[in-house]
Structure prediction request, 279 residues.
Amino acid sequence: MNQPVRLKAKAFKSSVKPIWCPGCGHFSVLNAITKAMAALAMEKDDTVLVSGIGCSSRLPAYVDSYGFHGVHGRGLAIAQGLKVARPDLTVIALGGDGDGFSIGGNHFLHACRRNVNLVYIAMDNEVYGMTKGQASPTTPMDWDHSKLTPHGPGVRPFKPAAVALAAGAPWIARAYSGNPNQMAKMIAEAIEFEGFSFIHVLSQCITYCPEQADWKSIVNERSEPALASADEAAKLFLSEDGFETGLLYRQQRQTWPPTSSIPDNQETALAKLEAKFGA
Ligand code: SF4
Ligand code: MG
Prediction:
């Protein structure tokens, strides 16, 4: 019997060429996703990438799988609905810091507590890149590199890992666009985790935040195992500088919907619905 052909990472890239600026961190995320797909020998037809709006949300077009380029901030809502309707699919939601933590902030909170079995990759460059450099929820208070915020936004930045933990996310990791191999490993682990797995990616915007090139001297890889205690993770996330990468927190808990409430097959569910409404 013939063995199935194992595809290389580049075979998971579509024929659409990215239009990101040269040096944009999102190229690394694309590479890491396709590497993870190759490492797990994933089926293209059983994989769906769902995004919102923004530079990073263009990513589904560049992967040779199913994709859905959604509405601003609504990628997680679409991804959760899809996963609940089709639990057999691998669903990866993705987007940027403005999309995920501002416009889609409410969906982020509830996705963390709902714990649907999917992956959420937030590509954080601390700026709205596509709309030319406005401050985002993660922009440092004193960031005065843009004419749009001459004295800095003056607002405390959002701490994605701390917020995810407080809202109930069971699996929280951080990756860096300068280390695509570590990121690919994180993404593969996230896909294999049974539950909502959140990867906060430090993905530099070279055009509006060229100072982020300095991140490579600040990021450090976590050497200890992931924390399993929410108390300890809270202490870490509220006190850290936000540049430690790796799997930071992991705790298995009940996913939603509970397995017992998933219909055996969607046709039965549809037939029941139709009967109820007299169709
Ligand atoms: Fe990437 Fe920034 Fe260019 Fe957008 S504006 S493609 S985030 S470098
Ligand atoms: Mg951004």
